[in-house]
Amino acid sequence: METVSLPTPEPQRPTAAPVPFALPHGLALEEEIHRLRKEMNAVILAHYYQDDEIQDIADFVGDSLDLARKAAATDADVIVFCGVKFMAEGAKILSPERQVLLPDLKAGCSLEDSCPPEQFKAFREAHPDHLALTYINCSAEVKALSDIIVTSTNAEAIIRQLPEDQKIIFAPDRHLGAYLSKKTGREMLLWNGACMVHERFSEEALVKLRERHPGAHIIAHPECPEALLSYAHHIGSTSSLIKFAEERPGEEFIVLTEPGIFHQMKQRSAGSLFHPVPGLGAGCANCNNCPYMKFNTLEKIYRCMATRSPEITLPADLITRARQPLERMLEMSRHIPSSGVGSLGPQSLHA
Fold first, then answer.
1. d(Cα 217, Cα 273) in Å, to the nearest integer?
2. Total structural domains within the chain
3. Which terminal residue of the chain, N or C, has fewer Cβ atoms less than 10 Å from its own Cβ?
């Protein structure tokens, strides 16, 4: 297993500036969002890392694989994507005829930033005998340069479908790639990218939590470094971590992933206790939160629906090229069941 060292930007925690718009006095946001959803024939998709109140108004909450499936299958006219930009771009690629809205265009991704398309293109050209297996946390341009897109839910299953002599590039997350290489026994050429949240959990804090809660299950997302994964009783995607907790109601968990996931865990694992692991550094109590995921708010969702902006637009030729590896992913993942919550049809907030 080889990790490629290329100059990539040091991730900085972004700060969300308030979006300048005036809400009507006394506006009931949830009711207005529900009204607009009906008028627009819109579906609201949300990732597990979104704030609780956003998950509660969404038609469907899921991981990256489930959200891609829902985006491809919906018959809604408008997709309101409550996640980050690469996810909304994926929805547009899979449903180009739909209008796709993202509440805040600044909702980016440090993993996406770690893999500039020009550098990835040059890297692919330098290794023409390698198949590019690319994590979905990347730009539309990088997807278009890839052979197959994967998520943390389906990556292992897809790797096991490839010929054993097939050389593989895995990008952009080196920690996920290293975990998959160890799990499958496949040598892979790894791009040197990482998630700014999962890479910065404090090992010292994790050890202290383990000492204070000796009976707790330690569960971790494979975007974490190997040093952290070595403590885990269970390693898996967001949907896998939720299922693990769901099967153990009333128990205790130390969780190494973005704490937005706790909302679904608490609903599906009655009586359980969940402990977040802090981030590294003094004054970094919130470093385990993805700042990009937190850019979205109910106010911004209302505004984007009321104004139909910001809208995700992509060139037609880019959509065509990026769609092929995404569709190949969906085809190779048909046997993996859905694990998200909700349906594609608009739901009543008062049901």
1. 10
2. 3
3. C
Compute the chain's Rg from CA coordinates: 20
- pLDDT for 148 equals 98
pLDDT of residue 351: 31
Domain boundary among 191, 210, 232: 191
Q: 101 with 117, same domain?
A: no
> pLDDT tens digits, residue range 63-73?
999 999 999 99
Q: Does residue 344 form part of some domain?
A: no
Q: For 154-163, what is each residue's pLDDT tens digit?
A: 999 999 999 9
The reply to whether 103 falls in a domain is: yes
Q: Is the dihedral of CA 116, 324, 90, 136 positive or negative?
A: negative
Q: How far apart are CA 300 and CA 124, in angstroms?
A: 38
**Residue 24 domain flag:** no
In whole angstroms, give the CA distance from residue 224 to residue 262. Answer: 18
Q: Which two tokens stand for residue 305?
A: 């629906």
Backbone angles phi, psi at 174, to 5 degrees: -70, -30
Cα 41 from Cα 344, distance rounded (Å): 11
Q: In terms of domains, do 45 and 93 share one? A: yes
Query: What residue numbers bound the domain in which 59 lies?
Result: 29-107+293-327
Residue 173 lies in a domain: yes
Measured distance CA(344)–CA(164) in Å, rounded: 38
Half-sphere exposure of 281 (CA within 13 A, CB side): 8
The model's pTM: 0.90
Cα–Cα dist 60/76, whole Å: 13
pLDDT number for residue 27? 76
For residues 92 and 126, membership in a common domain is answered with: no
Q: Hey, which residues does 168 pair with through a beta bridge?
A: 131
Bridge partners (DSSP) of residue 4 are 191
Helices 316-332, 64-73: axis angle to 10 degrees equals 120
